[in-house]
Amino acid sequence: MSTSQCIFCAIARDSAHESPIYRDDQVFVVKDINPKAPVHLLIIPNMHLASLAYIGPGQVPIMGQMFIVAEEMARREGVTLSGYRLAVNQGKDSGQEIEHLHMHLLGGQGLGAMG
Ligand code: AMP
Ligand code: ZN
């Protein structure tokens, strides 16, 4: 998929887009449109990376910022102490739907065991 057809690139490019609840020079955050938990946010790099398969040493700052912002968002949503899960889907077996790297932040209820 080209970046011109990518929904997350479209949001990243449009600084007036209403969806992001957080933006900085590396990442933005939106509420998932089909939430799987009371808190379900997506932490998304501004730069188009189709998936984890495309990261390398040059992406260390972005990957670090995704975790820093995830914890900041969790704190704002009041789930740091109750707990939350961060998840990144990679490829077909994970069910990855959107080919622009994003990290899910899920919380606000018991999430059950993984797997
Ligand atoms: P994944 O399976 O990891 O690719 O997850 C894609 C997620 O993006 C799903 O949970 C969708 O509900 C969510 N989603 C799709 N389009 C949008 C959008 N425009 N804004 C917010 N969330 C979206
Ligand atoms: Zn993109």
Explained architecture:
The protein has helices at residues 7-13, 60-77, and strands at 22-23, 27-31, 39-45, 84-87, 103-107. It is of the alpha+beta class and 115 residues long. The protein has a single domain, classed as HIT-like (HIT family, subunit A). The protein is globular, with a radius of gyration of 14 Å. Residues 7, 19, 30, 32-34, 42, 89, 95-98 line the site of adenosine monophosphate (AMP).
Keywords:
115 residues; HIT family, subunit A; 5 strands; globular; binds adenosine monophosphate; binds zinc ion
Order of helix and strand elements from N to C terminus = HEEEHEE
Radius of gyration: 14 Å
How far do the termini sit from each other? 30 Å
Averaging pLDDT over every residue, what do you get? 96
**CATH architecture classification:** 2-Layer Sandwich
User: Number of DSSP strands?
Assistant: 5
Structural class: alpha+beta
The kinds of small molecule bound in this structure are: adenosine monophosphate, zinc ion
Biggest β-sheet description? 5 strands, antiparallel
**What is the CATH third-level topology name?**
HIT family, subunit A
Q: What percent of residues adopt helix (DSSP H or I)?
A: 10-25%
Shape: globular
Give the C-level CATH assignment. Answer: Alpha Beta
Task: Kindly report the name of the CATH homologous superfamily.
Answer: HIT-like
Compute the number of helices.
2
